């Protein structure tokens, strides 16, 4: 029988719902290796073939430590992502507020906007932190590149408008 540890969590419930034990179970994976989308084909003692769609009630593999069903776990994870995205934008706003103040200071003291030595230090710190946290170097470079570019543009605008 093809019953995997993953499906054994789900199958007994549905079999009980059928009210009769199947003679055999055969699992048809709708999309191979996509464990969250599958159909279970059941033949009852009476020889009736039935197909149970697990699409809406799919349990996640217990080995990943998820207890809830797919939709609940997905909603919970996405709510976490929403919070993080909000924090990210809040932090960007905070950074730009400081950057603008630096821009004003530079304008008053007739200093250039760009400070490549400081930029190198900023990037090195970010890369070091990213390495510790397992964030890709490529992503970190791209992210810092965008931040530095926009920070300098914001400063240049402050200097122009002052
Ligand atoms: C904010 C500054 O101005 C520019 C922007 C930087 C940044 O966004 O981190 C760093 C160096 C400068 O090119 C600064 O000098 O500190």
Automatic annotation (TrEMBL):
<dbReference type="InterPro" id="IPR036263">
    <property type="entry name" value="Chorismate_II_sf"/>
</dbReference>
<keyword id="KW-0413">Isomerase</keyword>
<dbReference type="InterPro" id="IPR051331">
    <property type="entry name" value="Chorismate_mutase-related"/>
</dbReference>
<feature type="domain" description="Chorismate mutase">
    <location>
        <begin position="68"/>
        <end position="159"/>
    </location>
</feature>
<dbReference type="GO" id="GO:0009697">
    <property type="term" value="P:salicylic acid biosynthetic process"/>
</dbReference>
<dbReference type="GO" id="GO:0004106">
    <property type="term" value="F:chorismate mutase activity"/>
</dbReference>
<protein>
    <recommendedName>
        <fullName>chorismate mutase</fullName>
        <ecNumber>5.4.99.5</ecNumber>
    </recommendedName>
</protein>
<dbReference type="GO" id="GO:0046417">
    <property type="term" value="P:chorismate metabolic process"/>
</dbReference>
<dbReference type="Pfam" id="PF01817">
    <property type="entry name" value="CM_2"/>
</dbReference>
<dbReference type="InterPro" id="IPR036979">
    <property type="entry name" value="CM_dom_sf"/>
</dbReference>
<dbReference type="InterPro" id="IPR002701">
    <property type="entry name" value="CM_II_prokaryot"/>
</dbReference>
């Amino acid at each position: 029988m093809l019953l995997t540890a993953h499906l054994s969590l789900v199958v007994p419930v549905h079999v009980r719902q059928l009210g009769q034990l199947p003679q055999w179970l055969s699992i048809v994976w709708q999309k191979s290796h996509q464990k969250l989308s599958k159909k279970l084909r059941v033949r009852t003692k009476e020889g009736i073939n039935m197909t149970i769609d697990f699409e809406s009630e799919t349990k996640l593999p217990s080995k990943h430590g998820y207890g809830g069903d797919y939709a609940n776990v997905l909603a919970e994870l996405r709510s976490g992502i929403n919070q993080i995205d909000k924090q990210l934008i809040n932090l960007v706003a905070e950074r730009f507020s400081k950057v603008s103040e630096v821009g004003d200071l530079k304008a008053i003291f007739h200093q250039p906007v760009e400070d490549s030595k400081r930029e190198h230090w900023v990037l090195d710190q970010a890369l070091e932190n990213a390495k510790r946290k397992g964030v890709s170097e490529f992503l970190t470079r791209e992210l810092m590149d965008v931040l530095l570019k926009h920070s300098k543009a914001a400063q240049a605008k402050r200097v122009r408008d002052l």
